[in-house]
Amino acid sequence: MRPTRLPVPPPRRAPDHHLGGARPYHWPVRIALALALLSITAACGPQFAPSAAVSPGANDPSAASASGPRISQPPVTPPTPPGTDLPAFACADASGGKTGVANAITARVGEQLTYDRFVLQFDSIVPTYSVKRQPKPVFPQGASGQTVSLAGTAGILVSVHSATGATTFTGDRDILHTEYKVLKEARQTQDFEGYVSWGLGISQPVCMRVFTLDNPARLIVDLQVPAS
């Protein structure tokens, strides 16, 4: 009796590389190669520069016009301030003014360090005037023949022709300032038949500076304070 032969399994064959088989350890290698290839492709690709920043108002027409050429205005000489170009004081009577008729508006006085000031204001022009010194502060009151005495020891008579303030004058017609160094009192002594007169009572005979200003029309009498 012959012994029974057991079937012998055929020997195992290694996967055939020509038939598309792949060893298991090839997959990680292939993935690493693929990633390396993608990195190289990205590095060699086109480079895009960042877009240039657009300044505000680049497309704004108003901004373009603002940056255009500018035409500078020629320099304008400022007007001379009052009090910087005045006549000198003179120990003499004064006269002046313009031909014409004007209405007296108001009168005022002021005290400065080196002079006291009397101002008579008109509506349009300063008509013909005279400013005369006199030894006493005594003045006639129009055609009445009466006189009035003012404060002080000497006087100055301011007379304006072709003027009236009967319906236009406002303010005091008798201004008293005994604390002033020179001008003690200013008083209207006449407004009659086109003549307006003011008497100035002063502490002593002094030199005067008489001039006119415009806008508004003013007659100004400055009385110099004597040097102590």
Q: How would you summarize the topology of this molecule?
A:
Blueprint: H1 26-44, H2 61-66, E1 94-96, E2 102-111, E3 115-122, E4 129-134, E5 138-140, E6 147-149, E7 154-161, E8 163-164, E9 174-176, E10 183-192, E11 195-202, E12 208-213, E13 217-224
Parallel strand pairs: 2-8
Antiparallel strand pairs: 1-4, 2-3, 3-13, 4-7, 5-6, 7-11, 9-10, 10-11, 12-13
Assign a percent range to the helix content.
Answer: 10-25%
* Distance between the amino and carboxyl termini: 173 Å
Low-confidence stretches: 17-22
Q: Give the total of beta strands.
A: 13
In spatial order, strands of the major sheet run 1-4-7-11-10-9
**How does the major sheet shape up?**
6 strands, antiparallel
Determine the mean pLDDT. Answer: 82
Number of helices: 2
Q: Helix/strand/pairing class, anyone?
A: mainly beta
Shape: elongated
Radius of gyration: 54 Å
Strand coverage percent? 25-35%
Instruction: Note the quaternary state here.
Output: single chain
Secondary-structure element order, N to C: HHEEEEEEEEEEEEE
Provide keyphrases for this structure.
6-stranded antiparallel beta sheet, 11% helix, 34% strand, elongated
3D architecture notes:
There is one protein chain. This protein has 228 residues and is mainly beta. The protein has two helices and 13 strands. The strands form three sheets. It has a six-stranded antiparallel beta sheet, with no helix packed on it. A hairpin with a 6-residue loop joins strand 9 and strand 10. It is elongated and about 135 Å long. About 3% of the residues have low confidence.
